[in-house]
Amino acid sequence: MGTRVVTRRHERSIDKGLLPTPSDSGHERPVTADLPPAKKKPAFADDNMSNVQRPLVGIRGLEFGYEGQPRLFSSLDFTLYPGEKVGLLGPNGCGKTTFLHILMGLITPFGGTIEIFGRLRRHPRDFRDLPGQIGLLFQDSDDQLFCPTVAEDVAFGPFNQGKNSQEVRQIVRETLAKLGLSGWETRITYRLSGGEKRLVALATVLAMDPQILLLDEPTAGLDEAASLRVEGILAQLPQAMVIVSHDRAFLERLCHRVVILRDGAFVPYPGTDDPSLHR
Question: Considering the entire predicted model, what is its pTM?
Answer without folding.
Answer: 0.79
